[in-house]
Amino acid sequence: xSPAHPLDRPVWSTLTSRQADLALGDARAxxxxxxxxxxxxxxxxSPESQAALAALNTSPNGMGLVEAGDMxxxxxxxVRSAALCVQMTASALTAGGRDIAFEPLGxxxxxxxxxxxxxxxxxPFFEKTHQLGEFIGVKRDGRLIAMAGERMRPTGFTEVSxxxxxxxxxxxxxxxxxxxxxxxxxxxxxxxxxxxxxAANTATITLYETLGFTVRTPVTYTxxxxxx
Length: 228
Prior knowledge:
Layout: H1 10-15, E1 23-26, E2 29-32, E3 40-42, H2 47-55, E4 63-67, E5 79-90, E6 103-105, H3 110-120, E7 135-140, E8 143-150, E9 157-165, H4 174-188, E10 192-198, H5 202-211, E11 214-224
């Protein structure tokens, strides 16, 4: 299936382009190696592609599907959850914002990054998710208290993801400040930034709009149960 826009099927667009080295599967269906990310996608809605996608659902964490169009989950897979989300894009940042002291995050920070993401649940985050793109963070007294980074990277686009702040340090604008830095770096590479938010989370969507993101399309985020 050839999407009208690469972001209509962001997982498939990603795993058939710049992050193909992290893909498991074949031309019928692909998924990220589960150590990196939850997401998978079928090439199309044919029974052969859907069966191939179901066969990739081998991780205990299950598999996540992100689709803008009507792409039902593969037959035989149990749905854990399905939520309406919005996909937002930005080609320029709004003026303003505050400057904060931040630092790049790497392998030495992997444990703290996973712990912070596990505590705050900004989205699926696993042992190697921090390797999907550049991450930056804020530390206080040597401890990581906020971070933001990159996840899916289809050609010409990069997703802003992993944005979170420790509950004890919220209300200081760390998340929005870090998002500005991550987004600006994406734009400076000549790419467009995108992200996903739950449609019901209007406060979060409003925050993203103040940074310059606009809603591009609704998407459905479906999580499948892993094998029993």
